[in-house]
Automatic annotation (TrEMBL):
CDD domains in the record: SufS_like
Protein name: cysteine desulfurase
Residues of the Aminotransferase class V domain: 23-389
E.C. no: 2.8.1.7
InterPro entries: Aminotrans_V_dom (IPR000192), Aminotrans_V_PyrdxlP_BS (IPR020578), Cys_dSase_SufS (IPR010970), PyrdxlP-dep_Trfase (IPR015424), PyrdxlP-dep_Trfase_major (IPR015421), PyrdxlP-dep_Trfase_small (IPR015422)
């Protein structure tokens, strides 16, 4: 039965892609953008761009006001406590690198950092490289055959030597939610800091950060229907105060002399240089748009589509779904056919999905694979999109097997 998306027309690119016979099923890589965001960008650039936190003039004051208003909006949206706890970065990757450099001073040789076995490279490599710089031990929290984190093993591996736990909220490959509640509580009891990579999770479940109980949370605007080039780092006030300045230049300085300088505290102290002003304003407009939607209707629509996608794949012969996906995306392989060949056939038929290692090479290696196809959903997708995907897949399977 046709299940239309009530929000499809809010995203002009979906119609444009359709006119080019393209079905977009790669929202976990990046999302399409709502008209509300396009309007906000046009307004900002059309009415006078200006740099923030420095100019006295009217456009500068307006830009600063709009920019800081978005910081407050984001803090409220995430239930962060206060706007001072929100640092703007250039993406989730840059937020995680900021942390890996800014927290480096607190580690000593022999300390441990724990990460799960299914992290995106963005939440693995900064910690791996920090461990190498400082002689730390990177502890990998294992997953079972279904790709689920082995919670008992993880609880044992996080111990008194653990100084930091870095874990994603939702896997970008397996579509599984991680058991954050017990892990974060246990890490805190051991005196470790915790970092949650919410790049995927924030899109499908609006977090309550005060309740979640992590020290840091990072997210990325472009996956949440916002502009690219913007990321967010949230920190608990005490934890944020522990992060050292890591990039130096304009905006973040308090007083500068030739031989020395003093710096502002977070958030501005961690935002060296011109921040992504238009991007932040655009993210604010996107949040307003998302807040205007019926959250229950969005969840129900996503759940229906996900079930349709998962069920359709599971009922086809020779397809192996990776793990036990719970939301928004499904990765799979076709026995005996290389994922690049499947991707090629789908691409030829205008189906935009992602193939490869999904920036999680160690996880794919652990699963004994060199790649997989990932189909991921946005709130503009509907059952017709999935029908077109399955038709193309069936044709591809006939051709390739
Ligand atoms: C789980 C996860 N973490 C981090 C990132 C990196 O995000 P960004 O593109 O904002 O750097 C991604 C992007 O795919 C992701 O899926």
């Amino acid at each position: 039965m046709f299940q239309p998306s009530p929000w499809r027309d809010d995203f002009p690119a979906i119609a444009a892609l359709h006119r080019q016979q393209q079905t977009y099923l790669d929202s976990a890589a990046t999302s399409q953008k709502p008209q509300a965001l396009l309007d906000a960008l046009l307004y900002y650039y059309g009415h006078g761009a200006a740099n923030v936190h420095r100019a006295q003039h009217m456009p500068g004051a307006l830009a600063t006001q709009a920019f800081e208003h978005c910081r407050a909006k984001l803090a409220a949206w995430l239930n962060a406590g206060s706007a001072e706890q929100i640092v703007f970065t250039h993406g989730a990757t840059s937020a995680l690198n900021l942390l890996a450099y800014g927290l480096e001073h607190g580690f000593q040789a022999g300390d441990e950092i724990a990460v799960s076995a299914l992290e995106h490279h963005a939440n693995l490599l900064p910690w791996q490289q920090l461990a190498r710089r400082r002689g730390l031990r990177l502890v990998i929290l294992p997953i079972d055959d279904q790709g689920q984190l082995d919670l008992d093993a993880a609880m044992q591996l996080i111990g008194p030597r653990t100084r930091l736990l870095a874990i994603s909220q939702l896997s970008n490959v397996l579509g599984t939610w991680q058991p954050l509640g017990p892990l974060l509580a246990h890490a805190r009891a051991q005196g470790a800091l915790s970092v949650v990579d919410g790049a995927q999770g924030v899109v499908h479940a609006r977090p309550d950060l005060q309740q979640l109980g992590c020290d840091f949370y990072v997210m990325s605007s472009h996956k949440l229907y916002g502009p690219d080039g913007v990321g967010v780092l949230y920190g608990r006030s005490q934890a944020l105060a522990h992060v050292r300045h890591w990039q130096f230049g304009g905006e973040m300085v308090h007083l500068a002399e030739y031989q020395q300088a003093s710096f502002r505290p977070a958030p501005l102290g961690l935002e060296a240089g011109t921040p992504p002003i238009a991007g932040v304003i655009g993210l604010g407009a996107t949040l307003d748009y998302l807040a205007s939607l019926d959250a229950q209707a969005v969840s129900a629509h996503e759940a229906r589509l996900h079930a349709l996608l998962l069920g359709g794949l599971q009922e086809r012969q020779g397809i192996r779904v990776l793990g036990a996906p719970q939301t928004a995306l499904v990765s799979f392989i076709v026995e005996g056919v290389h994922n690049a060949d499947i991707a090629h056939v789908l691409t030829e038929q205008g189906i935009a999905v992602r193939a490869g290692h999904h920036c999680a090479m160690p996880l794919l290696q652990h699963l004994g694979l060199d790649g997989a196809i990932r189909v991921s959903l946005g709130l503009y997708n509907d059952s017709d999109d999935l029908q077109r995907f399955f038709d193309a897949l069936d044709q591809g399977l006939e051709l390739l097997r």
